[in-house]
Amino acid sequence: MLKQGLEQKQTQRLSPLQIQTIKLIELPVQELEQRVREELNNNPVIDDSPQGGDDSPRDVSISEMEEKETSGGSAEDAYSSYTDDDPTPYYNRSIRNWGKDERPEYNTFSVHQSFTQSLEEQLGFRHLTDHERTVASFIIGSLDDDGYLRRDIESLVDDMAFRVGVTTDAAEVERMLSVVQEFEPSGVGARDLRECLLLQLEDKKRTPSIENAIRILRDSFDDFSGRHFHRLMTKYHLSEDEMKEVISEIKRLNPHPGGEVEDSYEDRAQQIVPDFNLDYDGGEFILTMPRFSIPELRISHKYSEILETSRYSDKPEQKEAATFVKQKIDSAKWFIEALRQRQNTLESTMKAIIEYQKAYFADGDEASLRPMVLKDIAEMTGFDISTISRVVNSKYVETHFGIFPLKYFFSEGLENSDGEEVSTREIKKELRALVDAEDKQNPLTDDELVDALSAKGYKVARRTVAKYRALLDIPKARLRHSL
User: Fold this and answer.
1) CA gap 321, 276 in Å, rounded
2) Residues 178-219: tens digit of each pLDDT
3) CA torsion angle 356 358 363 369 (round to 10)
4) The pTM is what?
5) Proportion of the chain above pLDDT 70, given as a percent
């Protein structure tokens, strides 16, 4: 039986301004430049030309237009809704958030040609049919960041059919995978570590130690990964010196071929532009946000005049023009104000990070980094944690000792023996130093690492050491043992 009733619900709706601001906060400065250009191309109401002298047509701010509107006209007029749902109805929306320099100097990181670009370029030199090239390109796109193909062949066949409309079979995918596995860096396209290492060994000049390494990895990989060297020496009739040569050859291989591209590849400058510049002068921090090529934006005067002259007209075309202009001005005011709010949010967040990590920014000593999480900065700024997360993502700051992603300054904390909170990064650094300095013929166990850290004043449980060791890609003591 159906029943009718009233139900009261409380929902939260984001205004267009809030949506714009959230989207812009996430963008690093380079992508923001592109987004501003897109808005300038798509919205004729926004003007970015320099303001002229007294004889030039004057661009007006939204606040001036709103003030003009309140001086006359009825509440039914086309422009009367400009301040609806706007928490800040009277402000100047001409954005002047950056300095006067059009394009100050900034540092860049030079990185190698990207992994995927390199493989696609090598694919271009192979004599393949268009269909084969498409299959091989799909395989390249399916590799993970380490250069491995961790998906089974049948899944790739299905994906190609459903996602790109390419019909193939397992045999062809296997054949194209073997083509990709011939590319540099050697080992790319492997489906597991064993295959990755074997692909690299197959590319080397055959020597007795290479032949032994291939046999061991092909037929006794589990024994080798378990470091059962004496068992392997017995099985393959190898002396200790021969076993050491095998280990030496395998150690030279790259278990993560996707992690780097050989130096012979062309360097392509990919700029990481800092969103913040932080100078330290005379004990004072000076924070600036480079403007680069982001122009000052304002509402064009001529469109405000079009709206003014057409809103009272009875002509359909004039009303249509007024509606169009109003929509564009609405969009423009939200975008310009979202830029202003983005600027203020980023600046407030960065100032809070500087205040929290003042000791570190003064000297750049990693040991001075305090434990800091998103919640700490959210409480200092009054912003939501999700907002801080968006600010931190993909943003960089240039300091007098280098360029760093904002994520670098965040870490959990633990107490030391004096009851002081220390950064987990500091503990990981000490753990790495202990392992690097240990006797490889008698490596430190997790319990011994706990004791060693305790002697240095760090109260760490055994399970914490095991966790940090795994995060640092440090094997267990038995696996770190050398002959």
Assistant:
1) 42
2) 999 999 889 999 999 999 999 999 988 889 999 999 999 999
3) -20
4) 0.49
5) 73
d(CA 391, CA 375) in angstroms, rounded, equals: 13
Fold category of 413-480 in CATH: Arc Repressor Mutant, subunit A (1.10.10)
Give 462's DSSP letter: H
What is the total residue count of the chain? 483
How far apart, in Å, do the first and last CA atoms of the chain sit?
80
Contact residues for 114 (Cβ-Cβ < 8 A; gap 6+): 261, 268
Q: What is the CA radius of gyration of the chain?
A: 31
The residues spanned by each domain of the chain are 16-50+57-99+291-342, 113-185, 187-253, 413-480
Span 362-408, pLDDT tens digits: 888 877 888 888 888 999 999 988 888 888 888 899 998 888 889 88
Q: For 277-306, write each residue's pLDDT tens digit.
A: 999 888 899 998 876 566 778 777 776 666
Provide the mean pLDDT of the chain. 76
Predicted local distance difference test score (pLDDT) of residue 403:
87
Distance between CA atoms of residues 428 and 468, nearest Å? 6
Are the beta carbons of 156 and 139 closer than 8 angstroms? yes
DSSP one-letter string for 16-77: HHHHHHHHHHTS-HHHHHHHHHHHHHH-TTEE-SPP--TTSPPPB-HHHHHHHHHTSS-TTS
For residue 208, say if its preceding peptide bond is cis, omega within 30 degrees of 0.
Answer: no
User: How far, in Å, CA of 331 to CA of 336, rounded?
Assistant: 9
Q: What are phi and psi of 124, to 5 degrees?
A: -65, -20
Rounded CA-CA distance 268/114 in Å is 9
Percent of the chain residues past pLDDT 90, beyond the cut = 22
Q: What's the CA gap between 204 and 207, in Å, rounded?
A: 9
Alpha helices in 282-365 (DSSP H): 301-310, 316-356, 358-363
- Residue indicated by tokens 């596995």: 181
